[in-house]
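Researcher: Go.
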Amino acid sequence: MITHGYVEVVMFKSLIAGLVGLGLLASQAYAGQLKVGSWGGNVRSGPSTDYPKIGSLKNGDPVVLLKKEKLTSDRFNWFKIAYGNGQVGYQWGGILCGFNNKVNGTFGICEKDKRSTPRSYECYDLNKIRSKRAEIKTKITFFVGQTDDEFKIYWLDYNGNKKLYTNLSSGMSWTADTHRSHSWAAYRVSASGGETCHSIIKGKKKSSQWLLR
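Model: Structure:
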């Protein structure tokens, strides 16, 4: 879940000062309305993963939205953003959220949507983990950040066997309607088709989100 504090406030004030100096934003008041947070990941030179990487952000870094770009198939927009010490680039809205107000084309409100991460386990425990029967329903949303990798999402059944549910690539998301006691495994797929375990997770009572990158 994205958090922010004094460090990020200082970073944001420095960023706004730099942007005003560059003439990119009309006023601090306007910029404050567009303050959003990032889940991290690559910053691109243009509004798609076809453009080269020009920078990167860490989970929780504040950014300022400068312009909304094209809508993707999963209903999130790409955005032209300002970040760091006045750098400008592009990031996908599925890993952006508003600190104070919801911004159309982004995930939602960082704190009010209470983005939580599911319970995670190490891949070396794969042979020990399986789903259990229970009545508590929940949801897990898998997001793929800006990456050249592809992923396969498997349900680990009651005997621990993998059952493929979906394939995901950069900018895509998928929500599993599942149970709290059910186990899921995300596998990274290489260019040659080989698969490597990326993570194993189980949901919580509340809906949770899992970022793959």
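Model: The chain has two domains: 6-98, 124-212.
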